[in-house]
Amino acid sequence: MRFGLFVANGLVLAGVAWTVGFGPNLRASQLMPAREPAALGQLAELEARYAADPTPANVTALAAAYLERDQPGLAASALDAAPREVRTRPEAAHLAARAHFRRGRAADALAAAEQVSAACAVDACPAWLAAKAARHRAILEQIVAAGIEDPEADPIAVRAAYERGASEVRLVAMR
After folding, report:
1. For the whole model, what pTM was predicted?
2. How confident is the model at residue 61, as a pLDDT?
3. Low-confidence residues of the chain: pLDDT under 50
């Protein structure tokens, strides 16, 4: 019994020594590959599909590509020009909230985030979207409550509002 405890302690100390000795030199592996923004050819293809057939998949793909390329104005205009049945979908409203926030319109972003939450409460949303929308809405509520309209104007206040919003625990029920 004592010998087994001695061996176990030795293994633990060897593991700690190995971690201290080699740990700082090891690089953490990347969990997911970095996403590259859509290339210009892919963007032109998305725009052509959007113009030919503005289905929810085509509209959200184009808006997401614009947001990845840091073009929130183009994303917002693509969503605004989409048919009404597409704009009312939770995925499109979520992208609209992201676009409004990146354009410096926090109050409009909050309204769109509340639209996503309301749509997910009524219809069946994917679980990832409901959870993401709840978190996004909590952060936007804190940003708007702090009186921040443009996130670029006061990044320290946005960070504080983000920490307050992220500290709220929200539960999303799975259906």
Report:
1. 0.72
2. 93
3. 175
Distance CA 89, CA 96 (A): 11
CA 144 to chain centroid, in Å, comes to 18
b or e along 114-136 (b: 16 or more beta carbons within 10 Å of the residue's beta carbon)?
bbbbebbeeeebeeebbbbbbbb
For residue range 87-125, list pLDDT tens digits in order: 889 999 999 999 999 999 999 999 999 999 888 888 778
Q: Are 144 and 162 in contact (CB under 8 A)?
A: no
Contact 69, 42 (CB under 8 A): no
Q: Which domains does the chain have, with CATH numbers?
A: 37-149+157-164 (1.25.40)
Number of neighbours of residue 22 by Cβ within 10 angstroms: 9
Q: How far is CA 38 from CA 1, 6, 35, 99, in A?
A: 62, 58, 9, 17
DSSP 44: H
What is the Cα–Cα distance from 38 to 86, expressed in whole angstroms?
Answer: 22
**Element containing residue 164 per DSSP (H, E):** helix 155-167
* Cα dihedral 43, 49, 53, 54 in deg (nearest 10): -10
Q: Measuring CA to CA, which residue among 127, 79, 129, 130 is closest to residue 103?
A: 79
Instruction: Give the separation between CA 98 and CA 139, rounded to whole angstroms.
Output: 12
